[in-house]
Amino acid sequence: MKQPLLQALRERVLILDGAMGTMLQERGLAPGGCPEEMNLHAPEVVAGIHAEYAAAGADIIVSNSFGGSRTKLAHYGLEKSVTEINARAVELASPAAVAIACGNGREPRRRFGEQDVRWFEEPVSSDDLVGLRLLRDRAPSGMAIAAGEYEWGRDGIEELAGCVDVVQADVTRIGGISSLLRADGICRARQRRLDREQARHHALDSLLERAIEEGGVSQVVEIACGMSPRGWRLRDRYGDRLPYVEADLPPMALRNRRELARRGAGSGGQRHVELHALRKG
Asked: Are 149 and 197 in contact (CB under 8 A)?
């Protein structure tokens, strides 16, 4: 935003969203329960509430982190989850905030139109279907919301097709040409575009593997790469001989570590870390 918050306040009344705890209690939070814990166990509920406030005309979205301090969370035995709970709170609130910025029909919409913005790629995580749908429905006319590059399966592609204008599919991730053709069929049935993301990955893989074989690479670090299939391939090929580190924002790094653990694939030189960890050497 070009205008700071104080300038906006001088020009008009800004409307904050409403109560979060009351809404959560209406949707499953037990009396005396921890509202912030729902960021982890019922994220779709929290994101849905944010989306409803944005749709109702709120100018400011407040994350579900009012009681997110270590002292407060200790009452529920959650003091070790402070970082995870608060990071997730911001992640869940972000789609509604972005939707307000690009879809409320005020100054941001005019600026997008003046600059002829036509493409908004993965404005929020592809896991956040509520946020993607909200952005698509409220984005300025002519702007395409695109996501899905890191999607692994047909079910995920089908869900995304109902939430975005353009589904991105990487042939190296979704299982080859046959899966890519199925994804194309899903998009055609939903009257959505399919954007193929494989060419640049093949080029990068070729250059990287050549450098490794020639002895010019002893470690690979990918930044903000999601769950990269490149890591799987290099781990299978080189094992512990080639450390492979994927660094990302805290919510994505946490998601990737969980996925590695779920697949029983947390060894073999492949690690997922938060971006700030790179500064620690």
From this structure: yes
Beta strands in the chain (DSSP E): 119-121, 144-147, 166-169, 193-196, 220-223, 244-248, 270-274
Q: Do 252 and 226 form a contact (C-beta atoms < 8 A)?
A: yes
Which among 198, 144, 201 is positioned nearest to 169, based on CA atoms? 198
Taking alpha carbons only, the member of 217, 234, 126 closest to residue 172 is 234
Amino acid code (one letter) for 273: V
Q: Pick from 49, 138, 146: which is nearest to 92 by CA?
A: 49
Gap between the Cα atoms of 24 and 32, Å rounded: 12
Is the pTM above the cut of 0.85? no
**How many angstroms separate the CA atoms of 17 and 57, rounded?**
8
d(CA 101, CA 197): 28
The pLDDT tens digits for 139-197 are 777 788 888 877 777 788 888 888 899 888 877 677 777 777 888 888 888 888 887 65
